[in-house]
Amino acid sequence: MNGQQLDPAVTSAIADFEKSNVPGVWATLDKNQVLADMRSRVLDPFLVNQGGQPFCGPASILFELIRKQPLRYVQICRSIFETGGFQGQTTRIKASQTLVKSRGRLRLSQADWMVLATLREAENSIFNIEVESPDIIRNLSGMTKSWEMKGWTREVLGYRKVKYIHTYLFGEYEALNEASAVIDSGGVAFGLITASGLLGGKKPFLPYPNHWITILGNISFKGGSWFDQESGRVSLDIYSWAKKFHIDLDERPFEDYFWGVVMGGNG
Fold first, then answer.
1. What is the pTM of this model?
2. What are the contacts of 16-21 at 24+ separation with CB within 8 A?
């Protein structure tokens, strides 16, 4: 959507929301500010920012929702603002009364907070825990889990074919090749990474999965492979923290910082 004229249906939906007399249910949100945030994001989805909240998983989902389905994004925002929730593909995702009545410093934009907080709070009552997931994933209590990302990919983004490939010990090459094919066919892919190692240029003492990113594509492998002793390089484009990053890293550290991929498609 960057630099492009909005679809008239999106413009009309925002105008209808603006004219609506239905009061908002959120104690801390200002409708005019929410509308301003929404308008900026449908023009540039890269403005989506988790800010100072641990919302990397929902933010990755929200980014793709706006980028690929801006009209649904507007409809979801209006529904959450006016009713406290929205209808997913098979279930209603709803914020609690405690959340909608809460006040305080949001640490991010109002529209982003409204959607991301609703998704983050509601997930435990919606998506089943996958007991076969490794302990390191299940035990990171504040971290968005793979089954939650899969659930949002179905319920929010509407993709019918959703899967998760973990790469804790091996399989990065195969996972990224499959992610590339899914993206090229119109689907989405979300990577689980060690943020400081992959994005921050720092070598952590003990790498562990702590951050979700949106994989945008432009995936390539240069020299070497995971099947011989020669070190190659991995490159790809990703979204995170309201920015587009180009990752270009030696194969071996990439293996240490890349933990898996959630993919969604309809093909």
1. 0.91
2. 16/78, 17/74, 17/77, 17/78, 17/81, 20/78, 20/82
